[in-house]
Amino acid sequence: MDLLRQVIDQIRVGEPLPFGVRDEQGQLLLAKGRVVANDAQRQILVERGLYVDHDDESAGATGGGGAGSAKRRTTLFDLWKQTTARLDLLLASLDQDGFPTRCEAFAEQLVALVQRDPDIAIYHSVRQDPNRLSLYGLSHALHCAMVAQLAATRAGWPPEQVRTLVKAALTMNLAIVEVQGRFATLGRLSDAQRDQIRGHPQAAVDRLQAAGVQDADWLQAVLEHHERPGGGGYPQNLSTLCELASVLRMADVFMAKISPRTERPALSILDAARQMFAEAGGSPLAAAIIKEYGIYPPGNFVQLASGEMAVVIRRGATAHTPVAAAVTDRNGIPVVRTAKRNTAEPAYAIKSLVPDTKMMLRVPPERLYGLVEE
User: Fold this and answer.
1) Nearest CA to 178 among 217, 232, 133?
2) Taking burial as the number of CB atoms within 10 A of a residue's CB, which of 217, 223, 235, 264 is the most buried?
């Protein structure tokens, strides 16, 4: 890929991007056509490093004409890759005017992305990249927002309340995003960082209020998301907490358990679900999270009765019978083309989970799912 360092004049506030913005590794951060909302967001992009594919730039300069300028359409996988960078931009612009409006827009877009294909959303939360642990604070916020959305929707919450819940999930840890990344990467915390974590709910509320957030439900959910029913939580040691905070707490705990860290592997979905359900006292909302993920959620590696190893890609009619994509043959040899397997069929029933350490390859989601366009 031909990457060209960009200058700030090539990014215009309020206008669609004429090219896709990428990082130093060539990963797409913001797709062509996305709008940079203000000068602060533009400056943040510049500080993080702005690159553009030369073909994108040439196409933009020529108006996109000609057969050589044809580009593939944006896929859902592209959009999910961009959400991390876009959340980084959003939180970095907290002190700029209009944050509540920007956060509302981001939440609406995330809700729509999850609704477009919940299986792909779950896949991204299960199949996390262990080489990007420094971004854990951002990815964790996105995954918690997704889990909370799915649980609340299953429970029948109205859309406005779901959006408030998503906004709270995205911002509940905004005071410790970098600390979370360091802890996930290094596996240890200083005393000062521990104090920072203990105080982060109140710190987040203070910063949100300073940014113009006035939604009492949003603020209360952020403040109480580490409280525990019956007491023992922080920062206020409350014995009861609001319903939104309860969902955030469960989503936070569940995602922390299934996320890999340097010092420990991710817990299995089944073990994480059991622990969360017990800790939540059998809450119906905890049950909603478990029902959304099932026994074998998208992203799990499994061994089939056929002898093939496969990656779960779709939830099935029951928690035990998802759709999977075979990535090896019956002898364990990697295959060039994946084949979909309905595990409800006895010949392809799931026999066991396969630990990551036993996998012989990593397959991009586009190969597993096919091209799922925006």
Assistant:
1) 133
2) 223
What CATH number is given for 83-293 in this structure? Answer: 1.10.3210.10
Kindly state the helix (H) or strand (E) to which residue 160 belongs, with its residue range. helix 159-171
- Could you tell me how many residues make up the chain? 374
Strand order in the sheet with 309-314: 334-342, 323-328, 309-314, 301-304, 350-353
Helix (H) or strand (E) holding 335: strand 334-342
pLDDT tens digit at each of 374 positions of the chain: 444 444 456 677 777 777 777 766 666 667 777 777 766 667 666 666 666 655 554 444 444 444 334 455 778 988 998 899 899 999 999 999 999 999 999 999 999 999 999 999 999 999 988 777 888 999 999 999 999 999 999 999 999 999 999 999 999 999 999 999 888 888 888 899 999 999 999 999 999 999 999 999 999 999 999 999 999 999 999 999 999 999 999 999 999 999 988 778 889 999 999 999 998 888 999 999 999 999 999 999 999 999 999 999 999 999 999 999 999 999 988 888 889 999 999 999 999 999 865 564 567 888 899 866 55
Please tell me what DSSP assigns to residue 267: P
Domain ranges of the chain: 3-71, 83-293, 301-369
Q: What is the pTM of this model?
A: 0.82
